[in-house]
Amino acid sequence: MSEKELSELERALTGLQPKPPTLNRDDLLFRAGRASVRGRWFWPLTALCLGVVSVCLAVVLWSQPQDEPEIRYVYVPKAVPMQVPQAPFVVPQPAPWPDPPEIEQSPPPSPLSGYSNWRLQQQAIRFGVDSLPATWTQAAQPLQVRTADGADLCVGSRPGLAEPLTRFPWGEQ
Amino acid sequence: MMDPTTFGQLVDEHAAGLALYARQWCAAPEDVVQEAFLRLVRQNKAPDTPVPWLYRVVRNLAISALRASERRKKHEHIAAQRHVDWFLPKEFSALDGQTAAGALRGLPQEEREAITLHLWGGLTFVEVAEVLGSVSSTVHRWYTAGLNRLRERLGVTCPKKN
Fold first, then answer.
1. What is the pLDDT of residues B51-100, one digit of tens each?
2. Structural domain includes residue A123
3. How far is B87 from chain A (nearest CA, A)?
4. Closest CA to B147 of A68, A31, A11, A102
5. CB pair distance less than 8 Å for B156 and A8
6. What is the DSSP letter of B73?
7. Phi, psi at A144, each rounded to 5°
């Protein structure tokens, strides 16, 4: 058989229209939409599981014997404060201080120690040398210095002390 | 997930061919075709070639329906299958639908399936082979042999050569 004969037969067969099925297109699309929903069994299964659990819990609670509540007395010993032995209070003794260092006793102060030089000077100017204390005048001793050849030199007294203030130091009479 | 427009287009274009294909086994092909479409929308990922996929599902469902109906009421099924029209009344073809359907029923199953899938399903030989679980060369051989048988049974004369 040639290809042309086959094509003629094919063309004739293709001209036959298949009988359309008695499908309700709208119903099919509706069912397809419902079938395309994902997880449609999730919530029904969840509700079913929770319902079963609830029923089981109710059965367990219902089947438990309900006895009268038993009253039990529990004696708790009273707390007694304990006597804690106290150690005697000992005052801590301070460490002995080290001995103070020996301080050389200064000589007793002279009667003039209470006078300042300025006061003595003022007193001498105002009332004269005689008014000065005696110790002051006695202390006016001339200084003697021995030279290298053995001669003693009297260099006078300390100014203002060896000699009474009979004249002013600046030369006025 | 297939969008509704594509799905409606598939229903409009291939429902008749799928029903014709399912009529080879069962008297109520509408249920089989509808179940095949519903299985298509339940797929997490739409098949790359939905038309061969639909024909394969229709084939499996129709064969299962045939086995189930044979177990229940074998005689009623056979009687019902005889009175089912496969094609519309003769309008666009030189062939009579009843005669063509009778000739098709008399073909071996492989040849009949190959002709139905290729001519009215619009599948290529590769796709037909995918549906039937065979190779395209074998399908083409079945197709050619089936056409030869049909030509003999339908009395289609060869065109005169000038």
1. 999 999 999 999 988 888 777 665 555 555 555 678 877 666 677 788 88
2. yes
3. 4
4. A11
5. yes
6. -
7. -110, 125
Q: Each residue of A66-86: pLDDT tens digit?
A: 777 788 899 988 888 877 777
* Cα B114 from Cα B118, distance rounded (Å): 6
> Could you tell me if residue A44 is inside a domain?
no
DSSP letter at A172?
-
Residue B114, amino acid: A
Interface residue A32 vs chain B (CB under 8 A): yes
Q: Structural domains in chain B?
A: 1-84 (1.10.1740), 92-155 (1.10.10.10)
Give this complex's ipTM: 0.72
Interface of B with A in 34-53 (CB under 8 A): 34, 37-38, 41-42
Domain count for chain A: 1
- Residue for token pair 């003794």: A93
- Between chains, do A13 and B93 touch, taking CB under 8 Å as contact? yes
Please check whether residue A150 lies inside any domain of the structure: yes
Residue A147 lies in a domain: yes
Q: Which of B78, B139, B136 is nearest to B111 (CA)?
A: B139
